């Protein structure tokens, strides 16, 4: 049995020492072969240098170095592609995903589950606004998509090789990993834990990035925003038709009513607004279609440390 641990790292220098100490202690107790794949997502601090030093002292730590910052979802995708293990565990570098849980993950895996995901019982060290918006996002997306995306679940999970091979078959660019993990299916089970605050450093996501992340999730897994406009349009046309009938009858019975300016303005502005919103929704999907058809490589690796030369070409 080989276990691959995948760590996306972006400016995580202050966390690496604690991370590797805790992770390697846990992995050594498991008595199985392991590899730790660190994807350096274009860090601007000394993360890469430190990772290479770690690789030299422990060849089981392997490093993939991106040519620039491509974002967490893509770093994770790359790590999963490079992983050779029978089971793969993505884990955050900031110790918000306690490595000690890996033992429980392995136990469930040995019970025959293909995916063991970790559900947060609580999230500490996150602002009220982030918790509320995250909660709302999971509620909304679960109503919008037929794919069951478990709530309060991050990327920290164990995946069997079968699941990894299935994930690798999904070629899309806008990779909302939580959705993709669920979409592939397989026998899944949750274990619960309390999510500690980030150990050191700061979160790499601001609200604008989170908003775009949410949009990626929704547009990748639901076409409801695209379809709902035909129904809203239909409803508005119906109301407009009723109003028009009323206006015609009133004109026929009471004669020509000169003002009329207000109603025309209201209807025009309202319809203009509806049209702009619906155009915007189409634009969101269209921009993603545009990205998909370009078929650019997802990421570009500058160099690798610890992988055999012929296995990966980019
Ligand atoms: N990360 C990354 N690329 C990015 C942003 C983040 O590889 O562009 C990594 C980061 O180093 C960490 C993980 O993704 O290991 C989670 O990031 P963070 O802790 O900032 O997110 P949060 O926990 O606040 O959602
Ligand atoms: Mg974090």
TrEMBL record:
<dbReference type="InterPro" id="IPR050256">
    <property type="entry name" value="Glycosyltransferase_2"/>
</dbReference>
<keyword id="KW-1133">Transmembrane helix</keyword>
<keyword id="KW-0808">Transferase</keyword>
<feature type="domain" description="Glycosyltransferase 2-like">
    <location>
        <begin position="4"/>
        <end position="166"/>
    </location>
</feature>
<dbReference type="GO" id="GO:0005886">
    <property type="term" value="C:plasma membrane"/>
</dbReference>
<protein>
    <submittedName>
        <fullName>Glycosyl transferase 2 family protein</fullName>
    </submittedName>
</protein>
<keyword id="KW-0812">Transmembrane</keyword>
<feature type="transmembrane region" description="Helical">
    <location>
        <begin position="228"/>
        <end position="249"/>
    </location>
</feature>
<keyword id="KW-0328">Glycosyltransferase</keyword>
<comment type="similarity">
    <text>Belongs to the glycosyltransferase 2 family. GtrB subfamily.</text>
</comment>
<keyword id="KW-0472">Membrane</keyword>
<dbReference type="GO" id="GO:0016757">
    <property type="term" value="F:glycosyltransferase activity"/>
</dbReference>
<dbReference type="InterPro" id="IPR029044">
    <property type="entry name" value="Nucleotide-diphossugar_trans"/>
</dbReference>
<dbReference type="Pfam" id="PF00535">
    <property type="entry name" value="Glycos_transf_2"/>
</dbReference>
<feature type="transmembrane region" description="Helical">
    <location>
        <begin position="261"/>
        <end position="286"/>
    </location>
</feature>
<dbReference type="InterPro" id="IPR001173">
    <property type="entry name" value="Glyco_trans_2-like"/>
</dbReference>
<keyword id="KW-1003">Cell membrane</keyword>
